[in-house]
């Protein structure tokens, strides 16, 4: 029986920049990165440059568990993130991807500390919800 699972991605993105600048500034290796204009597959190209840090899909009934995994990796890098964003005119966001199985719906709320952290970064939050069974 499949279980509901959650993945969280933190992205710093913009028109065109060198993702290695973020890697070197934060001393964190991204889960993945790409450059605007790269070919994803035939007929589809990247529309922006991105540096991304993500969890794996993990069984979870509370999205805060995965958000906090990312937050714990970058919480001491807040000032560097804001400086890089301002210097290179970038944006950042958290993508919360929720796969619902067997009608097991994870708790979907953001605690005060997470809201404060997101605000301090000037980040957005995107929720992607997929119901399978």
From TrEMBL:
- Specify the superkingdom: Bacteria
By what name is this protein known?
Answer: DUF4279 domain-containing protein
Q: Which organism is it from?
A: Paenibacillus alvei (Bacillus alvei)
InterPro entries, A to Z? DUF4279
């Amino acid at each position: 029986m499949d279980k509901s699972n959650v993945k969280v991605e933190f992205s710093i993105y913009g028109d065109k920049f060198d993702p290695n600048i973020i890697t070197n500034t934060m001393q964190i290796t991204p889960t993945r990165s790409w450059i605007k204009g790269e070919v994803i597959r035939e007929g589809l190209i990247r529309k922006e440059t991105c540096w991304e840090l993500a969890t794996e899909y993990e069984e979870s009934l509370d999205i805060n568990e995965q958000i906090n995994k990312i937050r714990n990796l970058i919480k001491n890098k807040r000032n560097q993130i804001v400086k890089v964003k301002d210097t290179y005119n970038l944006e950042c966001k958290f993508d919360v991807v929720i796969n619902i199985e067997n009608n097991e719906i994870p708790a979907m709320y953001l605690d005060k500390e997470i809201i404060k952290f997101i605000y301090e970064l000037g980040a957005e939050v995107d929720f992607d919800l997929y119901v399978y069974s």
